[in-house]
Amino acid sequence: MQLNEVKSNMLGLSPTQPTLVWQCFQKSGQQKAEQPQSDRQSDSKLLRAIVCAACKHPITDESQRLEVAGRHHHTFFNPAGILFEIGCFAQAPGCQNTGEPSDEFSWFPGSSWRYSFCKNCQSHLGWQFLSPVSSPFWALVQNRLSEP
Ligand SMILES: [Zn+2]
User: Fold this and answer.
1) How far is the CA of 53 from the centre of ligand 1 (A)?
2) How far, in Å, CA of 97 to CA of 65, rounded?
3) How large is the average pLDDT for residues 20-25?
4) Residue 58 lies in a domain
C-alpha cells in the first residue's frame, strides 16, 4: 500500500511542490542499501563530514558526492558574470533551502533551483536543484565548504 502511495506521489511531482519532492526523495533513499542512511537526525554524525567554511556546521559528507551530467565538479558563471566552482551532492542535510524554485538561468536544463543556506550561520552555500523526473540534488560552492 505504501509503495502505491509513493508511486502516485511521484506522478504528481511538479517544481512547485518542493516539499513533496523532498518527501519522495527521503522514501526512495531508504531503498538504497548501499547508501548510508542520512536523515535529519544524523546531522551531527556524518561520516567524513564536509562543513560550512564560515562556521564549521556539518553540511554533507564525502559519500554524498554525486555526478550530474557526467561530472561531480562544475564551473559556471551566473548572469552577473561571477564564476562559481561547484560540487554536486545527493544530500545536504545541513542546508536550509528557501524560496520558490526558479528555472531562470538554470545551470542544469530541466531542473529548477532555489537557494541553499547554512542552517547554522545562514551563509549562502549554493543551490538545491529540483526536477520533476529525478531526485533533487545540491550544487554547493567549493570555497564555501571545508573539511573539519
Ligand atoms: Zn555556517
Assistant:
1) 7
2) 18
3) 38
4) no
